[in-house]
Specification:
The complex is a heterodimer of chains A (about 240) and B (about 130). Helices cover about 40% and strands about 10% of the residues of chain A. Chain A has eleven helices and four strands; from the N terminus they run αααααββααααββαα. Chain A is globular and about 65 Å long. Chain B has about 130 residues and is an all-alpha fold. Chain B is built from six helices and no strands. In chain B, helix 4 crosses helix 5. Chain B is globular. Classes of the chains: A alpha/beta (about 240), B mainly alpha (about 130). At the A-B interface, helix 1 and helix 2 of A face helix 1, helix 2, helix 3, helix 4 and helix 5 of B.
Chain lengths: ~240, ~130
């Protein structure tokens, strides 16, 4: 069945072609809406509750993961606990993978393995099967993470693919690619970079970006998630003075 | 001994959910087009259907309200995903499992669900 449009725009309403959309209603979509509406009608929850959870679920970012890494860098005992039991360590920083409230999670998945990098070993994560991702810690996965290109190539040519992200690792550094499975999730605990001695957890968390915890980038002092990227000219044109 | 659903305990196999096929959901499973089929045909590259977010929010709301606790839903989803709906990909498998579990626990009836699906379908197709 085809989805009808609410109204038709005149052909010249936009100066660019419309993005492709799926205009066919599937029975799965119908089922999802029907279940939700019945639950609301029966008082199991309200439409406003649902809207809030949907909005919140789409906004989770990687700050939880950054806090976990920063705490692991400054607290060796916590790091050991995080490596031994990632889900339990998450609870220590207020992220409960089993409780979908507050700093909780929209994830169904209750296993987390924290992969510790060393100067000689670098981890990178992928889900070759679909798009499994540690969402309670990192939020929604980036588009490229879900792309067949990344999923297929990172396991075959990890060093080359990392180089495409700008991460060129010396040949003596071993690279391990961890593939998520149905109920297990991974995140990378990068090596704490030089130049961060004496920093607080909050300062450290600022430089732990999403890509560092996927493993396609390394944390660096001065590079933060909220930094506005600026492409600096390598060979600036000399200023001409008249 | 009978469970609340009137089925023998063996039908639930310890997951708390009746693993017998539900005709309404079997029809969805057999006739429904998955996002993996629809999206490439339309040139859409987003790997997830738009309704995945609302489905997850529904699961969260049910958990928070206590109507369908988190781990119980997960266990039921696991069992259904390994059995009845093993050939259906995510997130279509998840919505089938959620509906199946809600039916199994008596949170909604098959008749109500069928009726509501007809209403929703008509609404989405209306011109």
């Amino acid at each position: 069945m085809q989805r009808s449009t609410e109204h038709d725009h005149p052909a010249d309403a936009h100066d660019h072609p419309a993005a492709p959309v799926v205009d066919e209603v599937s029975e799965f979509e119908v089922l999802e809406i029907a279940v939700r509406e019945l639950a609301i009608e029966k008082g199991l929850f309200t439409a406003d509750d649902h809207r809030k959870f949907a909005e919140w679920g789409e906004q989770i970012g990687p700050t939880g993961g950054a806090r976990l890494v920063a705490k692991a860098w400054t607290d060796p005992a916590f790091k050991a606990r995080a490596i031994a039991d990632g889900v339990a360590a998450c609870r220590e920083i207020g992220i409960d993978w089993g409780e979908p409230t507050g700093w909780g999670t929209p994830s169904d998945y209750m296993e987390l393995q924290v992969l510790e990098d060393t100067p000689a070993l670098h981890h990178v994560i992928v889900c070759t099967l679909c798009s499994c991702y540690p969402r309670p810690l990192l939020g929604h996965s980036p588009y490229w993470y879900r792309s067949p290109n990344y999923r297929r190539r990172i396991v075959r040519w990890p060093r080359q693919v990392l180089a495409e992200f700008g991460l060129i690792l010396p040949p003596e550094v071993e690279i391990r690619v961890e593939d998520s499975n149905q109920k297990g999730r991974f995140m990378v605990l990068p090596v704490r970079p030089a130049g961060t001695e004496g920093w607080t957890e909050a300062q450290l968390a600022e430089i732990v970006t999403r890509d560092c915890m996927i493993g396609v980038a390394l944390p660096r002092p001065g590079t933060t998630a909220d930094e506005t990227p600026v492409a600096k000219a390598r060979h600036p044109v000399p200023e001409v003075h008249h | 001994m009978k469970s609340e659903s009137g089925l023998s305990p063996s039908a639930t196999e310890g997951s708390g959910v009746n693993l017998s096929p539900v005709p309404l959901l079997e029809a969805v499973r057999n006739e429904g087009k998955t996002w993996a089929e629809l999206a490439p045909r339309c040139g859409v590259t987003n790997p997830d259907p738009p309704w995945k977010v609302t489905l997850e929010a529904t699961c969260q709301c049910l958990a928070v309200s206590g109507a369908l606790p988190w781990l119980q839903r997960r266990r039921a989803e696991d069992r259904l995903g390994e059995t009845l709906y093993s050939a259906t990909p995510a997130p279509e498998q998840q919505v089938l499992a959620l509906a199946h579990t809600m039916l199994s626990r008596g949170l909604v009836s098959e008749e109500d669900l069928a009726r509501r699906m007809n209403t929703v379908r008509s609404r989405l197709e209306a011109s």
